[in-house]
Each structure stands twice: as structure tokens, then as C-alpha cells.
């Protein structure tokens, strides 16, 4: 037996990799006659069920036929309801297919826009239903802050009362706690940005179960796209201004050429 660079040469059996030597559970068939008798058969996808288009749809979705973009989380959204004359959509579902690579149509950015639209329509419906004696459906995310007590479902009135009670005032030491351990700069920045993004209590409740990093990522992507759109708009305006100035200069040059002989003849 000869060992050479991790391989073991034993008689006429050929090379035996080191992994088979170190792992006794792995078996190696050194019989060349048995290997020569084995035949390989390539089956391909002949036994799969469905047409090629149906199998491709399982991988690529309906975009093959030109369907619009649709995230998997939006398929679980419920149907909208008419409340006090306002068609209120169901609460958007958190996306589960974000790749965090800054896509053109980011699912978290769409989720943020859907949340704002849903909150706007829900508050509008709450203002309209407060003028009536109707009760907001209990299973449709009632906005307890915006609803009057007479419009709140019976099982949620205690929660409404607790929310309306004044909060206890904290001492000054509670706002400046002592730090036992250091905080990373990245975490401080994320908390600062998240605090700036909170517009009101309803917005905070919408994102309470969403990690801060996802919201900061969505808002940052939206701001970057807005800056890019603003920069492109300014470049387009500058381009149009240059073209307009060039056209005015060309027109003035043509006027000077046409009016030149007439001016000289008048002077003579």
C-alpha cells in the first residue's frame, strides 16, 4: 500500500479517495466488472404530469403569459368591505418574498404604500360611521382611536376605554436610563430613522410586528428612488432649457441675416 497526496494505491484496485478511508461507513465498489455491466438510463421529464407551460408556471408564475407582478403574500388578502359608503380594503399582509437587493418594484415598498392607502380609507370610513349609529365590524380591524364609543364593537369597548385613559407620566430618570452595555452605531441609526418615520399612533401600530430593519430598508429605497426621479427631472428641465436657448439663438441669427440687407439699403 502506497500513500500519495491523500490517495491510497492498493494493488490493482485503483485510487481510493481519502474520504473513503477516513469514513468507514462509506462503501466503495472496487469491482470493475460490476460497473461495466450497469447501464445508465436518462428519463428526463417524460413522467411528469402537465404540459410544459404548466410546469414552467410552477417555477416562473403567471408572468410567462404577461400577467402583472403579484407577490405571494397578496394572494392571502381578504375582500374589501363597504363601510359607511367607503370601500375599505382588507389590511395588507406582510410580504414574505423580499430578497433585500433593492429591486425596482420592492415588495416592502408596495406594502408600505398599501398600508398608507388602507389607513387613509379606514380613517375616512371611521369619520363617516361616527355620524351614524352603525357598528364597525369586529373582524375587520376597527380603528379604535378614530371611532366613537357608540360605533365600537361590544367586545372591544374595554380596550377603547383603556386607550382613552391618560398615560402615566414618567420621571426624568426614565427618559435617560443608565447604559450598562454599549450600543452599536448601526442600531442607534436604525432607531433614529424608525422614530422619524413614525407619523402617528396608527402608523406605529401598523408596523409593530414588522422588524425595524425592513421598514428602514423600505423607506430608504423609496427616498433613493424619489431623489433619482428628482435628479432626472432636473436634468430633463436643463436639457429643455438648453434646447430652447439654442432655438432662440438660431432664430435670432436667421432674423439678423434676413434684416441685414434691408438695414444697409436704408442707410444708403
Report on the structure:
With 268 residues, the chain is mostly helical. Among the domains are: 2-28, no CATH class; 79-164 and 210-239, no CATH class. Helices cover 49% and strands 5% of the residues. It has 9 helices and 5 strands, in the order E-E-E-H-H-H-E-E-H-H-H-H-H-H. It has helices spanning 18-22, 32-37, 52-60, 107-129, 157-164, 172-175, 185-197, 201-206, 212-267, and strands at residues 2-4, 7-9, 15-16, 81-83, 86-88. The strands form 2 sheets. The chain has a 3-stranded antiparallel β-sheet with strand order 1-2-3. Strands 4-5 form a two-stranded antiparallel ribbon. A hairpin with a 2-residue loop joins strand 4 and strand 5 (86-88). Helix 7 (185-197) crosses helix 9. The model is unreliable at 1-12 and 196-202 (pLDDT under 50).
Amino acid at each position: 500500500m502506497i500513500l500519495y497526496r491523500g490517495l491510497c494505491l492498493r494493488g490493482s484496485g485503483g485510487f481510493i479517495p481519502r474520504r473513503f478511508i477516513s469514513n468507514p461507513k462509506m462503501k466503495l465498489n472496487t469491482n470493475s466488472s460490476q460497473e461495466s455491466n450497469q447501464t445508465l438510463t436518462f428519463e428526463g421529464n417524460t413522467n411528469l404530469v402537465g404540459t410544459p407551460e404548466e410546469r414552467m408556471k410552477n417555477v416562473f408564475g403567471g408572468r410567462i403569459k404577461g400577467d402583472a407582478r403579484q407577490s405571494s403574500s397578496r394572494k392571502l388578502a381578504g375582500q374589501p368591505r363597504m363601510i359607511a359608503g367607503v370601500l375599505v380594503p382588507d389590511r395588507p399582509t406582510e410580504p414574505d418574498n423580499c430578497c433585500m437587493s433593492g429591486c425596482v418594484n420592492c415588495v416592502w415598498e408596495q406594502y408600505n404604500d398599501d398600508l398608507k392607502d388602507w389607513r387613509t380609507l379606514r380613517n375616512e370610513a371611521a369619520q363617516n360611521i361616527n355620524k351614524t349609529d352603525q357598528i364597525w365590524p369586529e373582524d375587520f380591524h376597527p380603528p379604535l382611536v378614530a371611532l366613537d364609543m357608540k360605533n365600537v364593537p361590544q367586545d372591544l369597548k374595554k380596550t377603547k376605554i383603556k386607550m382613552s385613559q391618560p398615560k402615566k407620566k414618567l420621571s426624568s430618570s426614565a427618559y435617560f436610563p443608565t447604559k450598562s452595555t454599549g450600543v452599536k452605531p448601526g442600531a442607534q441609526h436604525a432607531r433614529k430613522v424608525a422614530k422619524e418615520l413614525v407619523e402617528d399612533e396608527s402608523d406605529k401600530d401598523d408596523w409593530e410586528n414588522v422588524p425595524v430593519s425592513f421598514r428602514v430598508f423600505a423607506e430608504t429605497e423609496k427616498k433613493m428612488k424619489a431623489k433619482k426621479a428628482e435628479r432626472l427631472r432636473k436634468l430633463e428641465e436643463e436639457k429643455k432649457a438648453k434646447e430652447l436657448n439654442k432655438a432662440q439663438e438660431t432664430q435670432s441669427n436667421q432674423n439678423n441675416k434676413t434684416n441685414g440687407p434691408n438695414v444697409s439699403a436704408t442707410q444708403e
